[in-house]
Amino acid sequence: MTDQGSTLTEKSPVIGWTVFGHPGAKRLLSRSYELNRLSHAYLITGPDKVGKRTLALDIAAMVNGERIPDMFGELPPLDLKSSHQGERIRKGIHSDVRLINPQTEIDGSSSKATLGASNLRGRQTISIDHIRDMIKDSVTMPFEGTKKVFIIDGAHRMVEAASNAMLKILEEPSGEVIIILTAPTLESLPETIVSRCQRIELRSVETTLIEHELIHGYGAEEAEGKLLSRLAQGCPGWAIDALNDPTIVDAHNQAVLRFAELIAGGIEERFRYARQTSQQFWRDRDAVITEINRWIEWWRDVAMIHHKLTNQLINVEWTALLSEIAAQLNGSQISNALTSLQDALSALERNAVPQITLEVLMLDLPSVDPAKVPSTIFEVDP
Hints:
The chain is of the alpha/beta class. The protein has 2 domains: about 200 residues, 3-Layer(aba) Sandwich (Rossmann fold); about 130 residues. Helix content is about 50%, strand content about 10%. It is built from 16 helices and 9 strands. Strands 4-7-8-2-9 form a 5-stranded parallel β-sheet, sandwiched between helices. It has a two-stranded parallel sheet with strand order 1-3. A two-stranded antiparallel ribbon has the order 5-6. Helix 6 links the parallel strand 7 and strand 8.
């Protein structure tokens, strides 16, 4: 076994991963593939936009990839980027790979989900019909590939009945089927499901690696690559989205100002914000979770300034504004604000009543003197 492992490391049988970063996860999967010891079910956890779905698609491309022997009968490394099967999978047109999320349409024997479905509005949960449809499809043989792969993207959104139905296929796996679930944390899913999957935890990707990929892989300018990699906070998917859509950075900057105005505002403004945000929660849960995470990032910067760690700031462009706010608060107020935000985030992820949760949060956050909070205009240095 040791010799096999050494040979595997030297041969690098799987190359061309489209997910970047996460070397440990890629080594594990590559080794499992080489030794024919892939699990029938994987649970990939990590922050939003960290690469969970991209890795799931890479796994699907890996198990369905084709390797043609050379003139000497040797098999070359499997290149996921150049693989024809991988290309079809990433385009969402492979008949044996299905991506299932709350927006997936159920159409008898098949489901359709776009790779950008996390940005869509509408249904917020994965229903039992989604899972029943998947189970029905799983009993047929692969058509154009080697394995049928079902990716449950956002498995923590499964309703209880869907989770119970999922257990059946996890307990009685077919040799021709691989199931991949993605979720933010292990705790966001029932233990009965977690225990039946091989777990892969993805952590934040290094800022320098994101910057390098943006510049050399996606053609970003150096200044843009530095800015986006810093704001991405270890989540390359966010940086890539922002590179392709400048309104994402605009929305981020608007949030920085919005939070400052609320901290300097009165109770009526805070409650109006809580009401509007809670209404949005029912239409687009992900957007509200992102909003709370932006709040946490904002207060983290305030804490860094309070402790004179300005070299650790995320929102460097807003140092003057955040410094004015930090100067009016003490360490306990800042710490308590971060705790309140974490509590609110946990409550929303557990499906607490959003308006009450957000109103309590608005009451918990400290206030500053509006006269001492300048209204600034965001400018990017040339």
